[in-house]
Amino acid sequence: MFPIRDHNPSSRTPWVTYALVAANVVVFLFQWRFADNGPALSDFYDRWALIPAAVTYDGAYQQLFTSMFLHAGFMHIGGNMLFLWIFGDNLEDQMGHAPYLIFYFACGLAAGLTQVLTDPASTTPTVGASGAIAGVMGGYLLLFPRARVDILVIFIIFFRVFSIPAFLLLGLWFGLQVLGEFDSRGATGGIAYLAHIGGFLAGLLLTMPLWLWRGGPGFWQTNGGQPPHPAAIYSASTIPIVRRRK
Asked: pLDDT 10s digit of each residue in the chain, 246 long?
């Protein structure tokens, strides 16, 4: 199950979101040349990935920033860029280009610091834009909890697109991060659930002033939790339902 689009059109071109997606892809293509060279990739991660011990004891604070543009594989960057593409344009539309860019990096830094502060001696590299994008998701949830999001559900041979409210999708995603953190206690490597949680909560908090300025709960009541403009309307899905033959 993963989102493919929302019904929340933007009123301006999301140049910052486009630039962030492009920057992540360019860095990933540069990084990918080390994919078959283990020592070179390890050296690359040692310098640019987020290693909590390096930040704690060596002052490698640049890793909090550079790690946001590194990814561990095609599925990793593909999933991250999909979420950024779906939810980032609407936050950029509401915040403006420059404030949104500052917001994005602030959420990414908050996610990285969460990872460092909760495990300061770890030598495991952490990579990915997930923390910053989690912040974007948190901000989206606060502003548009009932915006419709289309999700593609794949179950064995069953393919179907469903439209659900954003609060259900994003709330489920956040709940899975919390459960994942408790389930992974004591494990080494894997997913940085705490960074996701930290970025998401930072996004909620940093979007709070904008939400309050727009009227807070009154903003929700006026629009029913929907965006304050007409929703996008898509034609019926062309993805066929494949049924098992008898």
From this structure: 788 899 998 889 999 999 999 999 999 999 988 888 888 888 999 999 999 999 999 999 999 999 999 998 899 999 999 999 999 999 999 999 999 999 999 999 999 999 999 999 999 999 999 999 999 999 999 999 999 999 988 877 777 888 899 999 999 999 999 999 888 665 555 788 999 999 999 999 999 999 999 888 887 887 777 777 777 777 655 544 444 444
Domain harbouring 23, CATH code: 1.20.1540.10
**Assigned domain for 70 exists:** yes
Split into its structural domains, the chain has a count of 1
Q: What is the residue range of 40's domain?
A: 2-223
Report helix, strand and coil shares of the chain as percent, to nearest 5: 60, 10, 30
Domain assignment of residue 157, yes or no: yes
Distances 86 to 4, 50, 54, 58, 166 between C-alpha atoms, Å: 7, 26, 34, 37, 11
